């Protein structure tokens, strides 16, 4: 029995959302490439032809060996303005700040765990604002 399969995925980004689809598992890379040929002109796929990805996967082996985080964007005060930062969502409405733009002096820094509250920066759009360190 062959111990390697080829996984075919399709993904694309639009409006800050990423959409990822698992297409199938194939016995050979050639079979996965043939699947792309069958799908590339179909609705949706034809708009994102570079979104196909084939990865080799060994059977009987973990292919994901660490945890995961739900990433989102939150706002942090920068004096009288607000700056977007990337944060990992934890239980109980706690967020861990993961990255900030260089040269920005924010109320909280990378590695801080913060509580957030909902606020409206633009009419009709609800965002999250870091309000206190936990």
What's the helix and strand layout?
Layout: E1 4-14, E2 17-26, H1 29-39, E3 52-58, E4 70-78, E5 81-90, E6 94-99, E7 113-122, E8 125-133
Antiparallel strand pairs: 1-2, 1-3, 4-5, 5-6, 6-7, 7-8
Question: Kindly, what is the distance between the CA atoms of the first and last residues, rounded to a whole number of angstroms?
Answer: 52 Å
Percent of residues in beta strands: over 45%
How many strands, what sense, and barrel or not for the largest sheet? Answer: 5 strands, antiparallel
Query: In total, how many beta strands?
Result: 8
Give the uncertain stretches in residue-range form: none
Radius of gyration: 21 Å
User: What is the overall number of helices?
Assistant: 1
Which structural category do the helix and sheet elements fall into?
mainly beta
Give the overall average pLDDT.
Answer: 91
Task: List the domain count as a whole number.
Answer: 2
Which overall shape is indicated by the principal axes computed on the Cα atoms?
elongated
Helix content: under 10%
List SSEs in N-to-C order.
EEHEEEEEE
Major β-sheet strand ordering? 4-5-6-7-8
Domain DUF7336: 4-67
InterPro entries: DUF7336
Protein name: DUF7336 domain-containing protein
Organism: Amphritea atlantica
Key attributes of the depicted protein:
134 residues, mainly beta, 2 domains, five-stranded antiparallel β-sheet, three-stranded antiparallel β-sheet, 1 helix, 8 strands, 54% strand, DUF7336 domain-containing protein, DUF7336
Q: How would you describe this protein?
A:
This is DUF7336 domain-containing protein. The chain has one helix at residues 29-39, and strands at residues 4-14, 17-26, 52-58, 70-78, 81-90, 94-99, 113-122, 125-133. With 134 residues, the chain is mainly beta. It has 2 domains: 4-58, no CATH class; 70-133, no CATH class. Strand 7 (113-122) and strand 8 form a beta hairpin.
